[in-house]
Specification:
The protein contains 15 helices and no strands. It is mainly α.
């Protein structure tokens, strides 16, 4: 290993350690993740490297970049892309209220809100290492272009691969579809749009978005290994049924007791 490689590796490890430490401290102030980042799958070992600039895959990225700029001419789609750029759980989950069929908030759906925020806090940390390692140049940087959302100063110098927004959007879709399977088609359609929005605003390449949906699925699968996650998912599902009138609130405890009794009978 050359000296320059040793220096780059040390710099990479320092950046990752600092970012993860900062994220961990912030997360612990608000919510306790289901797993630490070290307990979650390592995306550097799961995902391929982003396409080289002289590859056929990058030729597709170029075509999709042009497609994204064309989409900006549609004022309605452009506004959706701008909303999708807001980096907060409140803004993200508000976009799923209609397809999910219920307003998601700490006040209206505390169990669903807890499930979503704790899960997303857990999976968010997975993107840090590959972003720092690959440090891929973003579309607006490569072309010295203007973004739709005026995020240039905030995003310049931060790696493009994978897309944190896309990971959040697709993870949210996976979780909400498990809470309300009957609306899975509309939930996933909105989650798909959420990733496309990052191409439209010029923040990410299409290959960033594609890999991020896979990364989100990896994180979502890992969450199910947590007993606490599974318990909270059950609470969220019951809350949804109660809020939508599919399960009377005063019968909630009786239903739980009945289910436990039925399982016990099966074992006997």
């Amino acid at each position: 290993m050359t000296k320059i490689h040793i220096v780059m590796k040390k710099r990479f490890l320092i950046v990752v350690a600092a970012v993860v430490a900062c994220m961990t401290l912030n997360a612990q102030d608000e919510v306790q993740p289901y797993f630490t980042v070290d307990q979650m799958p390592d995306l550097l070992k799961c995902l391929p490297a982003p396409p080289a600039f002289d590859s056929p895959e990058f030729a597709n990225d170029m075509m999709r970049f042009a497609w994204g700029k064309q989409q900006r001419l549609d004022s309605a789609r452009a506004e959706i892309a701008k909303r999708d750029a807001v980096w907060s759980y409140e803004a993200l989950l508000a976009e799923f209220n209609v397809p999910f069929g219920l307003v998601i908030s700490p006040e209206n759906t505390p169990e669903i809100w807890k499930l979503m925020v704790t899960s997303l806090t857990t999976t968010d940390a997975m993107r840090v290492a590959p972003k720092a390692f690959y440090h891929r140049q973003r579309p607006f940087e490569r072309f010295e272009d203007k973004m739709l959302t005026d995020e240039e100063d905030d995003l310049r110098g931060e790696g493009s691969y994978p897309s944190g927004h896309t990971m959040r959007g697709w993870t949210a879709a996976l979780l909400l579809a498990e809470v309300n399977p009957a609306a899975a088609d509309t939930i996933f359609a909105r989650g798909w749009m959420y990733g496309e929005s990052r191409v439209i605003v010029g923040a990410h390449w299409q290959s960033d978005v594609d890999a991020s949906r896979v990364a989100a699925s990896i994180g979502y699968a890992a969450l199910h290994a947590s007993p606490e996650f599974r318990e909270q998912m059950a609470k969220a599902q019951i809350e949804y049924l109660v809020k939508t009138g599919q399960l009377p609130e005063n019968n909630k405890k009786a239903k739980k007791a009945k289910n436990k009794k039925g399982k016990k009978s099966l074992k006997n």
